[in-house]
Amino acid sequence: MRVEFYDTTLRDGAQSEDIAFSLTDKLRITERLDEFGIHYIEGGWPGSNPKDLQYFKEVKKLKLKNARIVAFSSTIKANARPGTDPVMKALLDAGTDCVAIVGKAWDLHVRDALRVSLEANLKMIADTIGHLKKLGKMVFFDAEHFYDGYKRNPGYARAVLGAASGAGADVLVLCDTNGGSMPFEVFDITRDVGKAAKARLGIHTHNDTELAVANTLMAVRAGCTQVQGTVNGYGERCGNANLCSIIPNVILKMGHTGIEREKIVRLRELSLFVDEMANFIPDKHRPYVGESAFAHKGGIHVSAIRKNPETYEHIRPDLVGNSQRVLISDLSGEASIRYKAKEFNIDIEKDPDLAKEIISRIKEMEMRGYQFEGAEGSLELLIKKKLGIHRSYFELIGFRIIVEKKERSHPVTEATILVRVGDTVEHTAALGKGPVNALDNALRKALQTFYPELKTMDLVDYKVRVLSTREGTGAPTRVLIESSDGKHTWGTVGVSENIIEASWRALVDSIDYKLLIEEEKK
Fold first, then answer.
1. Pick from 498, 494, 469, 499: which is nearest to 480 by CA?
2. 224, 195 contact by CB (below 8 A)
3. Could you tell me the CA-to-CA distances from 15 to 86, 277, 278 in Å, in that order?
4. Which residues share a beta bridge with 257?
5. Ramachandran bin of 487, using left for φ above 0, alpha for ψ from -120 to 50, beta for the remaining angles
6. Which of 159, 284, 308, 354 is the 20 to 30 Å CA partner of 296?
7. pTM of the shown model
8. CB 382, CB 361: distance < 8 Å
9. What DSSP string runs through 395-446?
């Protein structure tokens, strides 16, 4: 069965708390969705705000290859005429060939929200859709609260679909608007409705019970051929159905067609891009596209996937643009270290005791608070130091940090550092926004004379974790640093009761790793 994918990230997704897409954001997301192969992109509600109306003007300038743009609106008001209703005028001003119309399918909403008669609601739906079909539009009818309405008054919910299909609606989209339906209810109701439906069925679910994806898949199994959702499941309250889970489930698991498998390999890339546009930190635990989706930590797991990845992976990660990862921790076994050594192009197979020694060292360090899951730069350096194949690029002689605070002024921080590079001693100082920033600036300043490639390196993230609250301000602290040179990104870690010392250790590893990268290029 061919399934059409309908994205509503730009409307429903934008209703998510903390999301505010700019016009440029919406246009860039549109281009990415089109490249990925999405069939329909709901751009917004042109009657609701000036930005959405402007979007429909600007989107016409894009050269889309796959997607059709959809404008969203409600039905006309009771006793209104489609030709003069301002809602219809705004919708038509958007100039799209496809439109989505939302109408009430639950008699409770008709009485309590719209406060019109049940018959008037049916007329509003029929008149709106009929008018749009006369103008040559493709019309998707969103039957809002359909499943709740069907459970309370199935006869009226069916009458709503009848009014829409009788007026010419191309797709009847069954909505679980409150997100409270169970998968077995969605399947049974969708199947029953489908037996008498005179138009294709679609599905639109919300995630208030964390069942939006499951409900969508059950609706597809019951016969729905259009699936609505958002990238990363963004949406009001708990979100909408997550297309990043639905698409691979429908195509790779259920065997339906709709988006080419060669395009699904860009799924993780799409997910990360929309996160970036939303200014959200990617959720590493998302199925399929998350950084942890194919990450293995337990020693037994790693031992098995080295022999056959299928033992602990339900699909090949590359099918969705992801990759297998092995995490090193106190739960790791020898197989984990061998896997990571191979990943780092380090040969430890010649010495059978070497992996045991490295694991022992890692477990000892993790007992003191180290964590290597987000610090693979430090891990690679640790292994190479254990093997004696890593040289020291510089040696610390000493540093001093002074923080001066005067009344009614911001604190001033200065770091002075003394390092030895070969036979040369370098002494320098630098200011910073705080102790760690000043120390970082001073260290870079001292080393850039010898290693100019450090100018391309930036510290992009800095995390501090207090490991125990019992010792108060004397508690051990873990510092995780993420660095980048524009081509590579790496994490390093340091632990100490002194936050400056912990930061220093992470900084040194970060610079060491950058110099290691540059050395290996030569």
1. 494
2. no
3. 23, 14, 12
4. 2
5. alpha
6. 354
7. 0.72
8. yes
9. EEEEEEEEEE--TTS--EEEEEEEEEETTEEEEEEEEESSHHHHHHHHHHHH
For 487, the 3-state DSSP assignment is coil
Rounded CA gap, 397 and 482, in Å? 25
CA-to-CA distance for 394 and 478, rounded, in angstroms?
23
Cβ–Cβ < 8 Å for 435, 403: yes
Of the candidates 270, 242, 236, the one whose C-alpha atom is nearest the C-alpha of residue 14 is 236
**Look-up of token digits 């002074």:** 402
Distance in Å from the first CA to the final CA of the chain? 54
- Per DSSP bridges, beta strands 477-484 and 489-496 are antiparallel
Residues 166, 205, 292, CA angle at the centre, nearest 5°?
150
Tell me phi and psi for residue 509, to 5 degrees. Answer: -60, -40
Q: How far apart are CA 24 and CA 143, in angstroms?
A: 31
Do the strands 226-229 and 200-205 form a parallel or antiparallel pair, or are they unpaired? parallel
Residue 310 CB burial class (10 angstroms; 0-12, 13-18, ≥19): exposed
Q: Give the dihedral sign, CA 126/127/129/134.
A: positive
By residue count, the chain amounts to 522
What domains appear along the chain, each with residue ranges and CATH number? 4-278 (3.20.20.70), 295-367 (no CATH), 395-521 (3.30.160.270)
283-286 LR contacts (CB < 8 Å, sep 24+): 283/232, 286/232, 286/242, 286/244, 286/245
Q: Do 458 and 483 contact (CB within 8 A), yes or no?
A: yes
How far, in Å, CA of 263 to CA of 214, rounded?
23
∠ Cα 126 129 133 (to 5°):
130
Contact criterion met (CB below 8 Å) for 145 and 175: yes
Question: What count of Cα atoms within 13 Å lies in the side-chain half-sphere of residue 117?
Answer: 4
The yes-or-no verdict on residue 473 having pLDDT over 70 is no
The pLDDT > 70 percentage for the chain reads: 95
φ, ψ at 35 (rounded to 5°): -60, -35
Question: Please, are residues 215 and 187 in contact by the beta-carbon 8 Å criterion?
Answer: no
pLDDT of residue 137 exceeding 80, the answer is yes
Count of C-beta atoms within a 10 Å radius of residue 452:
10
DSSP conformation letters of 302-315: HHHHHH-GGGT-SS
For 494-504, the pLDDT digits (tens) are: 999 888 999 99
The answer on pLDDT for 211 being more than 70 is: yes
The answer to whether 303 and 333 are in contact (CB under 8 A) is: yes
Q: Whole-angstrom Cα distance, residue 40 to residue 34? A: 9
DSSP label of 344: T
E-strand stretches of 177-327: 200-205, 226-229, 295-296, 325-326
